[in-house]
Amino acid sequence: MKEETSVIFARTDRCGFRSAEKERLFGPSESRLGEKHFVCRRAGWLLLWAVLVFHSDAPGSEPYRWLRILPEVSYTLNRPATNPYWRSAARFGLTARTPLRLGRLGLALQYRSFEARSSQVPDFRTLWVGIHWALGLPALGPLRLQGWAGPGLMQMWFDRDHPAVNQGLLVEREVGLAAGLEAALPVQKRLRLVARLDYQTVYTRVRMRFWTLGAGLSWELPAPDWLRRVLQ
Hints:
Oligomer: single chain
CATH class: Mainly Beta
Number of helices: 4
Radius of gyration: 20 Å
Number of strands: 8
Shape: elongated
Distance between the termini: 50 Å
Strand content: over 45%
Structural class: alpha+beta
């Protein structure tokens, strides 16, 4: 079982696949052509995101003028996302955004724990650290809408006392992509009630995908001078 647990998360080549073991545990592996297409798609999305964020010069808000903080609690809609091994609990997140000339630059921290469905695999906890670009969409009545997308890194900590865990698997880090939509309802000048739907994929050995629905309160405050100096 140690081997099975490691195979799920191990990255042993450029595409993150170990074909023979994947076929043994999870069915036929992808073709080499499919793997190349997968790598190209991932690189293409990251390149598009970088171009939009760092090369935008359209008129808009004064960059880094304010900072919007959003603590939120989210619920995973597709519970079978990690079947047959784990079920995920609620996700707790904190997002910070500041304006660019076009759109907004955001940083997200998200914590989630996973409970094993059987005693043969360990529980584990995750922390997602992501950066994204957000863009306002046409308003829907009083609702302020925006979409966002960007890459991130998920760090996973496994239960060190579980017999299925070897010392090389106590901590794992995997890259991923996330995108989402948000609707915000102003309740005060700087306070908004926010609902959000997001999709997240993590490139583990067997890819994890999550659809998540969440809510929170966002607060806008002037960006501190030290932060503006760092970003500029």
